[in-house]
Design a protein that fits this description.
Blueprint: H1 8-31, E1 43-45, E2 52-54, H2 55-71, E3 76-79, H3 80-85, E4 99-106, H4 108-112, E5 119-126, E6 129-137, E7 142-147, E8 152-154, E9 157-158, E10 170-174, H5 182-188, E11 196-200, H6 204-212, E12 218-221, H7 226-238, E13 242-245, E14 261-264, H8 267-279
Parallel strand pairs: 3-4, 10-11, 10-12
Antiparallel strand pairs: 1-2, 4-5, 5-6, 6-7, 7-8, 8-9, 12-14, 13-14
Helix pairs in contact: 1-2, 6-7
Length: 281
C-alpha cells in the first residue's frame, strides 16, 4: 500500500517484489493450469478468427486487477479484456491517477495452440510515462523487469542490448500478416530490402524481450494498444535501445502515434528502420 506522502518511485522501491509476486501468482493460478489443457468452451473469438480470448485471459486479468489495485490504492487498471468489454476504460491512460497496464496473456494464439511463446505483461504508468514493467513468460520460467532510470533485468541479470554486429542483415519482427490491413502491409513492405531480414512477430512482449537481450535487432508494429507495448518499450529503453514513430518521436502509450513505429536495440537501428517505414507512408 502506498503511503500518503510517498512517491510512486518510493512505492516501487518497497513493493516491486510484491508486484512480481502478484504476477507469478496470477499465472500459477489461472494460466499455467490451462496451458495445453484448454477445453473448447474456454476459448472464444473477439473481433475475428485470429483474435482469441480464453478463460485464462479473463480470470488472470481479474485476479491482477484486484491484487494490483490493493497494492496501490488510488490506482486504476487498464486491461485488455476490460477494455474489450468497455472501451471507455482506456481513457484512464489520459488521467492523473497511476495506471496499471495489463495484458494477462500476450500471445493468446500461441497459448491456445500449446506453444510456450506467451507471457503476462504489466506496466505501471503515471501521466503518460511508463515507470516500471514486468514481463513474465511462465512456461519458459523467464521474468524480466525494468524501472525507469534503473535498468532492465532478466531473472536478476542486467540486460544490455548493444548495437547489431556489423555486416549482417538486421532481424526485424513485424506485425503479423494476419493482423494487418492492406495499407499496413504496404507500409511494412519497405522493410523487405537489402540488409534487413523481416519476419512475422509472435508475442509482442517476448519480441521486445528479444530486442532487449540483443537477440532481435528491431520490431516494427502497426497498432498501438498500450497493453501490448508499454512493458516491452520500457524494457528496451532500459536495456539501451530506442523507439520511434513515423513522426520521429518516441511512442506514446496514451495514443495518437504516427504508425507504424519501431523499437530497436540501439538508436541508430531505430532511425534506420523508421526511415524505411517513412518512405512507404
Amino acid at each position: 500500500m502506498i503511503e500518503e506522502t510517498e512517491t510512486i518511485e518510493e512505492f516501487l522501491a518497497r513493493c516491486s517484489a510484491d508486484v512480481e509476486e502478484a504476477v507469478r501468482k496470477a499465472a500459477a493460478a489461472e494460466i499455467l493450469p490451462r496451458f495445453r489443457r484448454l477445453a473448447a468452451h474456454e476459448v472464444d473469438r473477439k473481433s475475428g478468427p485470429h483474435d482469441l480470448v480464453t478463460d485464462a485471459d479473463r480470470l488472470a486479468e481479474l485476479r491482477l486487477t484486484e491484487d494490483l489495485g490493493a497494492l496501490l490504492p488510488g490506482s486504476v487498471v487498464v486491461g485488455e479484456e476490460a477494455v474489450h468489454a468497455n472501451p471507455a476504460v482506456y481513457e484512464a491512460l489520459q488521467g492523473d491517477d497511476p495506471v496499471w497496464i495489463v495484458d494477462p496473456v500476450d500471445g493468446t494464439r500461441q497459448f491456445v495452440h500449446g506453444d510456450d511463446g506467451f507471457c503476462t505483461l504489466v506496466a505501471l504508468a503515471h501521466r503518460g510515462a511508463v515507470i516500471a514493467s514486468w514481463t513474465y513468460a511462465p512456461a519458459r520460467e523467464q521474468f524480466a523487469t525494468a524501472v525507469r532510470g534503473q535498468g532492465a533485468h532478466l531473472d536478476g541479470q542486467r540486460l544490455f542490448a548493444g548495437p547489431p554486429a556489423p555486416g549482417r542483415d538486421l532481424v526485424v519482427a513485424t506485425s503479423h500478416p494476419d493482423y494487418t490491413t492492406d495499407e499496413q502491409k504496404r507500409a511494412l513492405r519497405a522493410l523487405w530490402t537489402d540488409g534487413l531480414a523481416p519476419r512475422p512477430c509472435g508475442s509482442a512482449g517476448l519480441e521486445y524481450l528479444a530486442v532487449a537481450r540483443g537477440e532481435v535487432d528491431a520490431v516494427a508494429f502497426s497498432w498501438e494498444a498500450a497493453w501490448d507495448h508499454a512493458a516491452g518499450l520500457l524494457l528496451v529503453e532500459e536495456a539501451g535501445g530506442a523507439h520511434l514513430t513515423l513522426s520521429g518521436e518516441p511512442f506514446r502509450v496514451t495514443g495518437g502515434n504516427a504508425l507504424p513505429f519501431t523499437a530497436a536495440r540501439d538508436a541508430a537501428t531505430a532511425r534506420r528502420v523508421a526511415d524505411l517505414l517513412r518512405t512507404a507512408s
